[in-house]
Amino acid sequence: MMSIAGCRCSPATPQPVTLRLVNTTRLPIYVDDTAGKHGLTLKREVNGEQFAFDDLACECRFCSNACSTSCSCPDAGTERVLRLEAGGTVERTWDGVVQVAGFSNCGTEGCLDQQNAPLNEPFTLELCFSPQKPSGVIFSDAGVGSGLLPRVTTTCTTRPFAPQDLEVEIGPARGSACTTTAECKGADELCLDGACTTGCPANEFPAVGAEWILTVATPDNMGFFAMSARPQGSQYSGTGLLTSAVYQSSTLLLSFSRPGPVMGELLTGRVQIKLPVGTGAPLMSGRQVVATLVDDGDTSAPSRAFVMKDLLTGEVLFAADMGQGGRLLQTADLGPFRVEDGAVAVGCAQNACGRLLFFSLKFSTGTNTIELLPGANDTLSIGSQRWSFLNVSSGAYGSTSCPVKDIRPWAFWKL
């Protein structure tokens, strides 16, 4: 092999390079591990542009094998995701051979020619990873699961190297240390997980979806509810007997009745509230209540809320607010309880609508306050009486093209 200063000469024997991924963050990261890729891609500069090449290409794609009828590449297999724990390390080896586009007379499809990488040629190693756990992926004890890594949650970082370095190490770029967002100077940076970042560190906050959701349906009104206007939308309110409180799966069905103006007439109504799976209020039928359902009147992305109080004591027995675009139930509806937003973002998630910032919710009565992260629940007491509070989720987009900017559903009920 000749080595001439300033000349990039391909060696007779390729120089293998160790590609090492280190999770330098304090939380897990997730990478595309299909075919053992570890989320790593090699790039070569050509005429000032970076071009990726498949260093794990099947040999049957080589132009030297294009005319072979017995060579066939194995099935690519299912897509896999690797979860790399905080401080974890994985590595693989690049054999030092660059795969470049070639041509063969044996087929119309393109093939690959091989070129031993010059030892002093600069290459780029790119890492693409997600700090968010991909939904629906179940991981084995080895941290591998079948599934796709959503592009919208993925961020990439690069590291230059040359084959003569023999190894290259890469990991998530960590921002400057911080304790509050005020210390972060970059555009759209937040202080999360002790570092300034525009990304979203991993968190365990449940994603609002088919099973973790709170919805209040339009009431089935057969005369029980009277409709009136509110500053935002309208409300349906009725006073009478809670005749039934049953669950169908995770949907709470409340039925009401009261005497009508005609002798023997019975006016009825029903409300359906879908709660997150595994949650629910232990409501008892047979008591006199005041039930109010609020509708914001938005036909494109409707938000509704419901509150039910004991007619004799005025105690809140159950309250729920979808919280889309703002809360519908105010302190006057919930007294003596108050619901307030936490002021500081506690995490975020990237999705098709943008970056959703998560906040805590504060539930209080008098001097007693609990502050709940998204997905959390706890209780508050007034004397010997207790209420259970659930922050279903609490998030807001800084900017979004989607119709709903705030999503802050919650519920609470008397135990």
Description:
By secondary structure, the protein is mainly beta. It contains one helix and 33 strands. The strands form eight sheets. Strands 15, 16, 17, 18, 19, 20, 21, 22, 23, 29, 30 and 33 form a twelve-stranded antiparallel beta sheet that branches. It has a four-stranded antiparallel beta sheet with strand order 4-3-9-11, with no helix packed on it. A four-stranded antiparallel beta sheet has the order 25-26-31-32, with no helix packed on it. The protein is elongated.
Essential attributes:
single chain; 415 residues; mainly beta; 12-stranded antiparallel sheet; 4-stranded antiparallel sheet; 1 helix; 33 strands; 44% strand; elongated
**Mean of all residue-level pLDDT scores:** 90
- Helix percentage: under 10%
The biggest beta sheet, please?
A: 12 strands, antiparallel
Q: Name the poorly predicted regions.
A: none
Structural class: mainly beta
Taking all Cα atoms into account, the compactness measure Rg is 30 Å
| Mass-distribution shape | elongated
Number of alpha- plus pi-helical segments? 1
Portion of residues in beta strands equals: 35-45%
Q: Report, as a whole number of angstroms, the end-to-end distance.
A: 81 Å
List how many beta strands DSSP finds: 33
Question: What topology does this entry show?
Answer:
Elements: E1 17-22, E2 29-32, E3 40-46, E4 49-53, E5 80-84, E6 89-94, E7 97-102, E8 111-116, E9 123-129, E10 144-146, E11 155-161, E12 167-170, E13 190-192, E14 195-197, E15 215-216, E16 220-222, E17 226-229, E18 234-248, E19 251-259, E20 266-274, E21 288-295, E22 304-310, E23 316-321, H1 331-334, E24 337-341, E25 347-351, E26 354-358, E27 361-365, E28 368-372, E29 377-382, E30 385-391, E31 395-397, E32 406-407, E33 410-414
Parallel strand pairs: 1-12
Antiparallel strand pairs: 1-6, 2-5, 3-4, 3-9, 5-10, 7-8, 9-11, 13-14, 15-20, 16-20, 17-18, 18-19, 18-21, 19-20, 21-22, 22-23, 23-33, 24-27, 25-26, 26-31, 27-28, 29-30, 30-33, 31-32
